Amino acid sequence: MLPRRLGLFGLLAPAGLLLAVLFVYPLANMAALSVRSKFPGPFTYTGEHYAKFVAEPYFLRVAETTFALALVVTLLTIVLGYPVAYYFVRSRSRYKHWIFLGVISPLLVSIVVRTIGWTIVLGNEGLVNNLLRGLHLTHDPLPLMNNFASVTVGMVHVLLPFMILSIASVLGKIDPALEESAAILGANPVKTFWRVTLPLSMQGIAAGSVLVFCLTIGAYITPWWLGRGKVLLFSTTIYDQILVIIDWPFGSAAAMLLVAATLLIVAVYFALIRRVDAR
Amino acid sequence: MRADRILGWYVAALLFFLALPILVVIPAAFAPESTLGFPPHGFSLKWFQNVVRQPQFLRAFYVSVFVAIVSTALSLATGTLAAFALVRYRFPGRQLLELAFVAPLVFPAIVYGIAMLMVLNPLRLTRTVLGLVLAHVVLALPYVLRTVGATLHGVNRQLEESAAILGANRWRTFRHVTFPLIRPGLIAGATFSLIISFDEFTVALFLTGPGLMTLPLEIYNYTEFTIDPTIAAISTVLIVISVTVIMAIERFLGFEKHFKI
Amino acid sequence: MSDHEKDYLLQCFAGDVTRRAVLQSLMVAGAGVSTLTNFANHLASASAADAAEITVFAWPGLVPDILKDASIAPFKKSHPDVNVKLDVSTNAVMYPKMLAARSNPVISGGMFNDIFTQKGIADGLWEKPRDEWMPNRKHVPAELMPPGGYGTIFQFSPFGIMYNPDKVDKPASWGDLWNPKYKGRVVMWDSYFDAYTAASVMAGKGPNVEEGIKLWAPHKQNIGAWTTSPTKAEDEVARGEMWLAPHWGAWVEQAKTQGKKLAFTMPKEGAVQWAGHMVGVTGFSPKVVELTQRYLDTWNAEECQLQWVKKGFFGPANRSVKVPAELLKLEAMMTADDAAKKLIRYDVKSVGERIPQLKALIDRTLKV
Q1: pTM for this structure?
Q2: Is A6 at the interface with chain C, CB within 8 A?
Q3: Subunits touching C (CB < 8 Å, at least 3 pairs)?
Q4: Which of A263, A45, A232, A241 is nearest to A148 (CA)?
Q5: Segments of chain A assigned to CATH 1.10.3720.10
Q6: Computed over its alpha carbons, how large is the radius of gyration of chain B?
Q7: For chain B, what are the domain ranges?
Q8: Percentage of chain A surpassing pLDDT 90?
Q9: Which pLDDT score, from 0 to 100, does residue B1 have?
Q10: Interchain contact, A29 vs B115, CB within 8 Å
Q11: Which residues fall within 8 angstroms of residue B140, CB to CB, at 6 or more apart?
């Protein structure tokens, strides 16, 4: 039951106001920039920046890589993270805080330290390569760090905590009695999971997926360092445009396109979740 | 049960993977070489001494902690209210609003940083704690909305209605029935929000200046001078602090209470 | 239920308590937050208002320390009522910040490299330096000054090749970077064009960035990593992940004093000139403009120049500054007049204007 007098408006007002003034307005500013021919200085209105993005195959490739990465990372975090969330929720109390710490450990170190940690593990002179060479399995070092795979590993690593905690917070509220009843009614553990637990935890998976997908799209530092600059992503392109080339109209146009495309995907995803939930 | 054992091993392996960078970098903080490496060849505390000798790290730490706590508190409050609206009510434009609230997650932080700088500059809110806190609240809101919203979906309305029938008013119902049920969502949201704010670098880059620096920025500025185990030392200290804080919270609140019914 | 609870419930159902209570708590929270943030602002901000205050941009690392001792301190003696604040950041971050804050600028001067200096001229950000406010300008060789007349060089360094002496032999030529043995072991600086300039000079085509990029194309598999931070390149080479990198002599020498395993050499075709310039920013009162220029000039004064040389291994732009003999033995070190003669210079102005095209060319030629 809610303070009905406050009503819907009261509930939405604080967040809505914050968003309107400190998010929508600054972005509208940038959107206005994106249709200028140049900034700063005298300009004309033009859609050339948007056109450039759609026309050149280089940028289409960038978009492909970006969304592919986001998709792969999201799926991996769901598959890898769900069991951990399940275990965390169902386990006996003594180790719970250690598991929690382990789960959020990627986030406890600064991003610089984290990426150097990966260099130490995956680099040409890193632990993995030294091990392979020591076992005489390879002679030259395997380039483990300048490709899509290493970026995926790095992103999965840093985003698993988000997925695990999102799922765990919902999973924990599922009444174990429901699972017990299913067992009593004759369902084996797999069936119970598939028919009872999983659908009930959909909201957690949905929340986690949205977080992970969107965060991967927007991530810049981790993919840049783990890809050694060779994995071309939307975020690094935008970074270049804003800070290196200082072509803000083009950078803003790219950002607008990125957000629009991502929100579209998220909207579709929401619609699907609603369908599943309704069942 | 065998399945349980397999699951246990799997979880241990995954947690090892998650902790791997820490396990590799922390020993490097105690190594004498100036290039971060593993395994360490020797033992030295000089990097920790280096951290202590530079007061900007401690000052930036206080700023980061303050900004993280205040922005988390604000985002929890505003986010929970908004979550109630989005989950419990049906109104035109609701789905659009849901998307709008997700947008800060997607929007490239660089562009948001520049955009905020251009908006806050005429208001003279750049280089102020308030400006930074507000920016961080906007960045944290999507997390809170997602996690609190997710748990809110699972709250059985009948429980609340029974409470009302039994005579509890709205506030009491919220406090004794709804709140405990969404607590895991609040904790997850608070965790994300605190960590996001504390670690936040890109937007802070544009909204700070001399006199207002956050810890990630001081670390970044340091790495523009040299990359040596000093940053590993700082990370070690931060980890020790976080572990201590979480253990303390566990003492007082207990995790199993919040992630289980 | 006790009477007390009943009354409370009745009051709550009446609604006024709820609304008022919520409003009150919101107001208290709001007041609390604003007092707290004000307090935090006081905690965070370092200095109080002075008779006059100028904010100047400086690079991170040892620069702020050098400035505090060798530049701000002497300036304070001659201008006791002026407070100089340093905003520490990198070129790539500071320039956009200044551009975005034009309506209400805070930073009245700072240090930038050649390319950003040219950008600032094109974007109309700088003030023209006045010789009467910057007397040390006359000690700088004219060849070293940036084109356009809006900046003043105060330090320079040769751009050559950094390498890990344990892993590779000393490279003699820019072409050594293309040696197939070094596949995947070269770090390239992502937004800097000096390496391509050098390649083009080596091929006899003069300092032309586009030609250089095309010359690099068949050898792109040697590029193991792209970086936007000098320390990251140094770290990669020092730990043996990468073996070579086009890099600046001053930074290599600084890294060596920090204990990193690195060496620097100037290839036989020559090294490209990197310069640090000081610029004053428009949009301020005449008094602030003058004070800023007078302050910036201390960077070219002998006291500060010696610090650039001894601590940073930068070449001094002021030709009357004596470089200590042991330092001159380093390949990375030379006098201003030597630099004017030996270092390769290219058309910074045109490069500054063509950065989007150049970057696009690099992305499409060398990164795919």
Answers
A1: 0.85
A2: yes
A3: A, B
A4: A232
A5: 47-278
A6: 22
A7: 1-44, 54-258
A8: 26
A9: 64
A10: yes
A11: B71, B72, B75, B79, B192, B193, B196, B197
**Closest to C45 in 3D by CA, of A74, A231, A102, B59:** B59
Q: What is the pLDDT of residue C34?
A: 60
**φ and ψ at A262, to 5 degrees?**
-65, -45
Residues of C in contact with A230 (CB under 8 A): 225-226, 367
Q: Quick one: pLDDT at residue C311?
A: 92
SS3 call for C189: strand
Residue A4 pLDDT greater than 90, yes or no: no
Residues 9-38 of A with CB under 8 A from B: 10-12, 14-16, 18-19, 22-27, 29-30
pLDDT at position C40, please? 58
Q: How do residues A69-118 score in pLDDT, each as one tens digit?
A: 999 999 999 999 999 998 888 877 677 778 888 998 888 888 888 888 88
B34 contact residues in A (CB cutoff 8 A): none
Write the DSSP string, C111-129.
Answer: EEEHHHHHHHHHHT-EEPP
> What confidence score (pLDDT) does residue B261 get?
38
Across the range B183-187, mean pLDDT stands at: 87
Pick from B35, B62, B221: CB nearest C260: B35
Q: What is the pLDDT of residues B27-53, one digit of tens each?
A: 888 988 888 877 888 898 999 998 988
Closest residue of A to B173, CA-based?
A1
> Could you please report the per-residue DSSP string of chain A?
---TTTHHHHHHHHHHHHHIIIIIHHHHHHHHHHTBSSSSSS--B--HHHHHHHH-HHHHHHHHHHHHHHHHHHHHHHHHHHHHHHHHHHS-GGGHHHHHHHHHHHHHS-HHHHHHHHHHHHSTTSHHHHHHHHTTS-SSPP--SSSHHHHHHHHHHHHHHHHHHHHHHHHTTS-HHHHHHHHHTT--HHHHIIIIIHHHTHHHHHHHHHHHHHHHHH--HHHHHHTTT-S--HHHHHHIIIIIS--HHHHHHHHHHHHHHHHHHHHHHHHHHHHHHH-
Least confident of A69-78, B69-78, B121-130, C204-213: B121-130
Residues A47-278: name the CATH superfamily: MetI-like (1.10.3720.10)
Q: Residues 214 to 273 of C: which have CB under 8 A from any B CB?
A: 229-232, 234-235, 238-239, 254-255, 258-261
Is residue A23 pLDDT above 90, yes or no?
Answer: yes
Q: Tell me the nearest-neighbour CA distance from C343 into chain A, angstroms.
A: 25
Contact B211 C46 (CB under 8 A): yes
Which residues on A lie below 8 Å from C119 (Cβ)?
A: 246
Which residue in C44, C60, C96 is closest to B129 by CB distance?
C44
Q: What is the pLDDT of residues C34-48, one digit of tens each?
A: 666 665 555 444 333
Residue of C24, C261, C363, C365 to mutate, testing the A interface (most A Cβ within 10 Å of its Cβ): C363
What pLDDT does C143 receive? 86
Residue B148 has pLDDT above 50, yes or no: yes
Tokens found for residue B92 = 């035109």
B139, amino acid identity: L
Quick: pLDDT tens for C314-339. 999 999 998 999 999 898 899 888 88
Mutation site for C-interface testing, chosen from A228, A233, A242 by largest number of C Cβ within 10 Å: A228
Chain B residue with Cα closest to C239: B35
Global ipTM: 0.85
Please, what is the average pLDDT of chain A?
A: 86
- Is domain B54-258 classified as CATH 1.10.3720.10? yes
